[in-house]
Each structure stands twice: as structure tokens, then as C-alpha cells.
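Budget justification note: compute hours in this period were largely spent on complex prediction jobs such as the one shown. Inputs:
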Amino acid sequence: MASPLHAQQGQPTAAQSKQQLAEGKFRELTDRMQKLMVVLQKDEPEESKLLGAGLRFVQEKKLHRRLEQSGAMLSQGRLDESLVLMGKLREDLRSLLELLQNRDGDLRKLLERIDQLEGFKDRVDALAKEQQREKEDSARAAALQAQRKSIEAQRRRAEALLAQQRALREQTNQLPLDATDDATEPLTRREGELMEEALELAKDLRDLDAADAALKAAAAAPGEARDAEPLGPLIGASSKIAGKAAASMAEAQKQMGERQAASSLRDQDQAIEELEETIAELDRMAADAQRALLKLPFEQLSEQQAQTEQATDALAKDMEEAEQGGDAGEGEPTPGKNKVQQAVPKQRAAASQLKEFKAAKQKQQDAKDDLDSAKEALEDALSQLRQQLQDEVLRALEERFTAMLARQRELSLMTKTVDGSRQSILTADGQLPSALVSKIDALGQGERELELEAIDALKLLEEDGTTAVFPPMVEQLRDELHDVVAGLRAHTTGAVMSDAQRAVEELLELLINALRRTIEQKEGGG
Amino acid sequence: MPVSAELKMLKFLQERVNKQTKQVEALGAEDQAQPADYDRVAEKQGRVKELMRRLAEKLGKGDEGRGGE
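Corresponding output:
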């Protein structure tokens, strides 16, 4: 029996007619692409470039010639060879379609852009943290310097008070046993004055003690990656001791008023001892401050700040290059770039100030603020890109599944046709004719391509967070296509295969419907 | 994604699990089912259950949101 696909005498078969039609349509299409490419060159260069790439692809793959070859094979009755060639042609035409639709190209660009901005954001974040740490260190160094100066000033006051108390004690010691009120009265008054000064000193030392405790607490703050200084032997010690000295002076003044010179001398000695202790305590505080300062040398702070400045400058240059280079962000401004650039001179000024042993807290804070603003700008842009990515993924999936459904319907129909032929042309020994086997294999290949499409779609879904239910649905689709492929490879074409193919179609319809509704909801602002 | 669309897909997945369960059961009756066949269906059932739990959670949150308005 002659194959219905074989040419009758002088009459082209249906397959040949379709092949000729396809050849003609394809030539028409490429002619139009050529013309459109020229027209779009000026106003829409990107579109024109895309058409150019498509035409190059057509040329490189010799699609016109191969289509003709396939037609010739059909007319010569070389069906098996023609089927193989057609399978390859279909793959190339699909690639051409993808190229022209720029399918997934936009997605890829978007993903590259997200990666790029993520990288910039991480670098800005690290620099902002580094800048914060450097600001804290230099602020602490400046505070320690100020503290050391205050300690020196208070020590001078305590020294002066001690000298005066010693002199007064000497005068008290020289009083005769029967000293008159006239003799004791000036000394009593003087002791009262010294006591007032001691009280004043104790009050000022309270502030100094508080500053000392705060600096030590800051050094010991948890999470700080530096050696914590142990707290002083007694917080507020210097003011307390100076307060005791004032109390001893008050007692000495009282004893003197009662002309008890010997008792007064004992209290004055006590006051002298306590003033000496106050000075010793101030020396301890000064030594602690000096030790802490040695751990934060300005040269080192300046060096660290200079390094941060260089890293920030390098980042600014990379952000600038991203705008001009061939990277994902080509032609687009890099969010936060200006702020990163603005941070650089501030950091440079801070490093210079630190080199001259000057605090640079404000400049460092300003640089940190710039870096924080840059990070914020990058985060905003990333959030928008992620939203855009989600939309693109949904659209790409909808497009892909729609094309898959059309192809599945085609394959289902062809399978039914092949199954119909199968019933009528079974060989006597029950074997399938080889032409039919080739057709079933080609159908299996078609289904295998759909299975690969489903696997590819799963990769796309990794980028989407719209719903958790999509991935298992697409996995189900992949599994069902896999079963269909296995069935066709076993040359199953009857009702079982028809049901399986119908199930794939249903699944695709469900997915497309869900995707469309999701896109509509998103477009409606839902 | 609209909840109704999500529910439809879950219903679909559950129906597929049911169908596969019947197939494995039929194979089991003929002593032809492999342990891996049961594992595969169990895994799919587990996944549908997890998805349903998540959807219920989402719906619960939606209710809370409405309740608070």
C-alpha cells in the first residue's frame, strides 16, 4: 500500500504542499525582517539590532537552503531523512523565535543588574560599617585626649591646694600653746577658705570621674573588637577622696576655732594625706587614659581612614564604570554613585586631620551619612528591580507555557493521526512499519523538547517568589511530560497516550490561567 | 496570586496524587509496586499538605488583617 505521504503522479502530497507553504512564508518573513531592520535603524536601534541578529542566525544556520532540502527529500519520498532534518530545523526555528522575542534576554539582563547592584550594596554596607568604627575610634581618641588635659588641670589644682594646706599646717604648728584668738582667727579663716576650695575641687572631680567611667565603659562595650580596659579601682574615687579632705579641713577649722591646736594639726595632717591620695588617684586616671590612647594612635587612625577612603574611591570608580562599560547597567545611572563619590573627599579630609592629631569626628560622620544614603538608594533600586523581575518572570512563564500548550495540542493531534494510521497499516506480522516508527519517534522527540522546556521553566521559577504552588505544578508537568516521552518511546499511541497528552494540556491550561490572573492582579495593583 | 487560582492548582495536585495512589495500589495488588513508587507518592502527598498548610496560614493572616480593620 502506498503511503499517503508519497507523491502521486505529478500531484504534490499534503506534506509537500505544507512544506512549500512553509518555505514561502519563511522567505517572506526574512524579507520583511530585512526591510524592517533598515526602517528601525534610526528610531529604534535596539529592535533593529535584534532583527539583524536574527537575520545573521538565519544565514549562519542556512535555514532557507535546509528548508528547500527538506522539501526536496519529501518529494523524493525520503521521508525518514526529511523527518530528521525537519526535527533539526524545528529546533533552529525555535531558537530564532527565542532570539527575536529576546525571550529570557531581558530577564538575564535584569538578573545581572540585580547581582551588580547587590555587589555594590554589600560594598557600601561594609564601608559604612568601617567608617562608623573609625569615627568611634577617633571620637574616643579625642575624648581621651581631652580627658587627659582635664586630669592635668585638676591635678594642678589639687597640688596647689595641698601646698597651701601644708603651709597652713606649718603656721598652725608654730602657734604657741597659749595662742590668743587674734592669733588663731586668721588661720581658722584660712582653713575655712581651703575647705571651700577642696569642696569645689571634689565637685569638679565628680565630672572627671564620670567622664573616666564613661570612657572605660565605652572601651568595654560588648561587641567591640578591641581589648576592654578594666574599670578603675573605684569609680568616682578622686572626688570622694577630695571630699574627705574637705571634711578633714572642716574638722581642723572647728578645732582651731576652739583653740585646740593639737587636734587641729591631726585633722590638717589627715587633709594633707587625703589630698595626696587624690593626686595619686588622678595620676592613676591619667595613666589609664594614656594607655588607652596608646592603643588608638592618631597615625594608625589616619592610616585606617585613608584605606577606607581608597576603598570608597575604588567603589565610586566601579560604579562609574558600570554606567559606561559593557556590564548589566550599561547606560543606566548607578544608584547611590553620587553619594559614594561625595564621601571620598570627606574621608580624605578626615585622614589628613587625624594625621595632624586633630579629631575628625564630624567629617567622618558626614562620610558615613553619605554612605548610608548610597546604601538606601541602592536598596530602593533593588527593591524596584526585584518587583520588575517578578513581573518579567510571570510574563516569560505565561509566554512559555502558551507556546508549550500550542505545541502540545499539535503533538496530541499528530499522535491521534499516527494512531489512526497505525490501525490501518499494521503489517501482517504485527510489526509497525518503519515509517510509522519514525513518526512516533519524532513525536517523542517533540514531547522531550517540551519536557526540557518545563525543566527550563523550573529554573525561571527559582527567581520568582509569587507563590510556592508554581514549582510543584511545573514539576508535575515535567513528570507527566516525562511519562508521555517514555510512552512514545515505547511506541504507545492509543487512548492511554491520548489521555496522558490531554492531562498535560489541562495542566498547562491551569498554569496559564493562574499566571494570567496573577499578572492581571499585579497590574491592577492587587 | 489570587487564592482561588492557588486553590485550583492545589486541588489539581491532590487529584494527581489520588490518581497515582490508585495506580500504585493497583501495581501493589499485582506485586509489581516498588518501595520507590510508594515513596514518590508519599513525597508528593507531603508536598501538597505543606502547600495547603502555607495557604491556610496565608488565609489566616488575611482574616487577621480584615479583623483588625
